[in-house]
């Protein structure tokens, strides 16, 4: 009898009972039934019915799928990495009619991404950021969950034929619904109505993120939310039902918002953030991020990545403006402390501010201190941009600039770091290192003097005993040669014994392992060897770069 023989008439059990064919699944879900009705009406020459069917296609919602897949809100946050990456990717695509992606989908992705960034910036939840070839990586901490996503660079995107956009659009459809519910729940958690009402003037000037930050900072509306995603779904459905009856109220709130936030008042956003009367329940890390750029005022030139810096700087407590219409303050403002530029030269310079490259902002965020600006000035090659997602201790290699940042962080913890804007940090560190070097040199000099004094007393004693210098030198030479030979042979013997002992212990341990464990052990050893080779390669490159730099200086 075959192993999987099933007698006739017996029901299927387990996974076999759950399996259905594709044709049965299509019939069960009634996919493409609408198209069949349209074709049937056209075949019967019933043009009116065909037009009605085409103008009223069936609609569906993914609310139930979101609730089934994520029973709690924390589950949705844990699975938000791919969602944010895909939404930000489509938000960067060109919104052109006739392309494979609808314009409304791109606008919706742009709106959702800006709403997410505005919440992260307002709650100071951003923790890490890194500029790579693929784009800009961000990591935020929301309700104890670390969320990492990637945004493309602000460049002209081209839709290629190598990508199957139908599959990506299927994922995007679900992710749009998920992110909408997540934003709804997060906005209600900080007592802000959702969807937000933006300043139409700023929205027309493509400053949606800044308009959202202004809206959130007012704390418009007082609402409460549940910790379950199901509650969020029901609340959003109720909001959608009442949307048509709240048109007058929305216009009134928009007028109040514009009255509270005059566009020509400098620094309105950060003033409202500071004057918030909410209870301070932030942890130490959030407080540290919140005060990093406190009392600093930034101005963005037109060539820098504006949207990224508008997201990062307010998230760490700074005030920011840009070159163009709708900006809260202009370039001639005397309170500006830092101007972000990315050009080889600057035509006009204000002596009251520092001109730095955009990398300085990202490095300050990752180091959590205000770094010196000398290495990031206009026209200079900036220091290496280190990734905060790499653990240097685990990798076995610590870059030189990482060690410099560690020393600066230690100085900041000891309150040696001067106030932001003061550039005497390097001088203070150099002075401290020079004092330490001088003390070490004094100790070595004292030790040498003591050895010379002891040698003088020994020679004086031998001269009194009648020992000549020639006899003493011959004895010392013979003794030194014998000692050297003995030391060399002893060291070689010890090294051989050590290697043999290590080999024997490894052989004994592998002999007692199973085949699977031996394979795993070999894989671990191969990984360690590759890591050592990588470290040696990095050290070699560092040595070559230092030698080439010294040759250029000569």
From TrEMBL:
SUPFAM superfamilies: BRCT domain (SSF52113). InterPro entries: BRCT_dom, BRCT_dom_sf, PES. One of its GO terms (biological process) is maturation of LSU-rRNA from tricistronic rRNA transcript (SSU-rRNA, 5.8S rRNA, LSU-rRNA). It is found in: Nucleus, Nucleolus; Nucleus, Nucleoplasm. Residues 288-378 form the BRCT domain. GO terms for molecular function: ribonucleoprotein complex binding; RNA binding. Pfam families: BRCT_2, Pescadillo_N. Gene3D superfamilies: BRCT domain (3.40.50.10190). Residues 233-249, 478-506 have a biased composition (Basic and acidic residues). Residues 223-249, 478-512, 532-554 are annotated as: Disordered. Keywords: Nucleus, Ribosome biogenesis, rRNA processing. The keyword Nucleus applies. One of its GO terms (cellular component) is nucleoplasm. PANTHER family: PESCADILLO - RELATED, PESCADILLO HOMOLOG. Belongs to the pescadillo family. Required for maturation of ribosomal RNAs and formation of the large ribosomal subunit. HAMAP family: Pescadillo. This is Pescadillo homolog. It comes from Panicum virgatum.
